[in-house]
């Protein structure tokens, strides 16, 4: 399939707009994951600024002008979110304030893995009209969205891209059903193995052993393109022909895997926005995620 040229954004607008969430992350580190009903003591605790939308915007902003379209609370935490993003080069003009509290994510880290529970709170206040109006003002070349916001907000971003000719990246995390009309616009759909299996209709018992190339092949007819990520296994790309495997550039010691998916998605959007072909953009994103997991959280 021929690669698409980068869409023409506004001369003074961002190359990438990320439509998504912004949260305060409450992070506890434990020696081992607690069993059901068990209470364990944390060995460490931190509060950080996060949310998939904000994290992906920061990743994209390290390479290209990037704006965040999000909703935070009219509270001190909302201003902390804006200040954090602004300090990392993200345009926050379209981060609106709502009466609900700024979103929270409860994160437990253990054994180089994590468990996350997100309370959307203000993120639920990002409405479809607000998304449409923000994108009309920004006119980005590429729009990246995820699922810590409402289905209506995601759909508004997708339909704006269809009208404007901007390229749409969908990262359906946390995974939920996606309307066919929205899914068909994904270019690419960016999914990990679990998300790919869920969207492809693979049962929970089969998902663990599912073949990434087969998953990409099952999803490709429903989207413009698809990227299935597999951590140290690299990524598989499908866009009409047999899925292509793009391995990690080098093996590294995994120090902290949290945030790798967001780094991948943000870097992928940035590379596509400057005109890289899909394979080249995926290679760049794989390299960025690989570097991140080898970096301790305190040095990021």
UniProtKB/TrEMBL annotation:
InterPro entries: PfkB_dom, Ribo/fructo_kinase, Ribokinase-like. GO terms for molecular function: kinase activity. Residues 16-290 form the Carbohydrate kinase PfkB domain. The keyword Cell inner membrane does not apply. It comes from the Bacteria. Keywords: Kinase, Transferase. The keyword Kinase applies. It holds the Pfam family PfkB. This is PfkB family carbohydrate kinase.
